[in-house]
Amino acid sequence: MKLEEAIKNRFSARVYDGKEVDKEKLAYALELARQSPSARNIQPYKFVVCNEPELVKEVALATQTPGAKINRYTRNVPCFVAFVGEKVGLAKTLLKKAHIHYDDFDIGIAVQSFCLAATSVGLDICIIGWFSRKKLAKALALPRNKEVRLLVAVGNGGAQYKERKKKDFDEIVSYNKF
């Protein structure tokens, strides 16, 4: 699939068949995420692949809220990729006020590269932002200064992209002034 098709066809899949993810397709998407640009080429992240059944179950539970319907679909996800970065503490929060802290952008770029690459080879993905940082840190044995910044569900489900109406070009783009 060409880049343009991957961008237009990428969606947040919430139906998964639970079958193991093709390792070559996953490695391809991870490699393109690794090749993503980052500020000063620091690459302030690590990608943690969760594909062992017991760990996958633990990660899925960390995305769900007991008694709520949030992220129930993760029960059938066969693989997660955790995008891990430095923990954002008070010092970094204050530093952000002085200048831009690029880790957030760099991780976002890597996640987008991963998602587009995964889509291009036929994998279904969903970026998950709702999860228990504490439970994931424990499950993934993260050092104290690291945290999961984003989690991506990866699998196969066969859900078809449903075209969504996008705003017109002129509504989104302006030149020289807002």
Distance between the termini: 35 Å
Give the class from helix and strand content and strand pairing: alpha+beta
Q: Radius of gyration, Cα only, in angstroms?
A: 17 Å
Structurally, how many domains make up the residues?
A: 1
**Average of per-residue pLDDT values:** 91
Under CATH at level 1, the class stands as: Alpha Beta
Count of β-strands:
4
Total of DSSP H or I helical runs spanning 4+ residues: 7
H/E series, N to C?
A: HHEHEHHEHEH
CATH architecture descriptor text? 3-Layer(aba) Sandwich
Largest sheet: 4 strands, antiparallel
Shape: globular
- CATH homologous superfamily classification: NADH Oxidase
CATH topology: NADH Oxidase
Determine the fraction of residues in helical runs and give it as a percent range: 25-40%
Q: In percent terms, what proportion of residues is strand?
A: 15-25%
Order of strands side by side in the largest beta sheet?
Answer: 1-2-4-3
Low-confidence segments, given as residue ranges, are: none
Element layout with pairings:
Blueprint: H1 3-9, H2 23-34, E1 46-50, H3 53-63, E2 79-86, H4 90-98, H5 103-120, E3 124-128, H6 133-139, E4 146-155, H7 169-172
Antiparallel strand pairs: 1-2, 2-4, 3-4
Describe the 3D structure.
With 178 residues, the chain is an alpha+beta fold. The chain has a single domain, classed as 3-Layer(aba) Sandwich (NADH Oxidase). It is 38% helix and 16% strand. The chain contains seven helices and four strands; from the N terminus they run ααβαβααβαβα. The protein has helices at 3-9, 23-34, 53-63, 90-98, 103-120, 133-139, 169-172; strands at residues 46-50, 79-86, 124-128, 146-155. A four-stranded antiparallel β-sheet has the order 1-2-4-3, sandwiched between helices. α2 runs antiparallel to α5 and α3 runs antiparallel to α6. The longest helix is centred in the middle third of the chain and has 18 residues, at 103-120. It is globular and about 50 Å long.
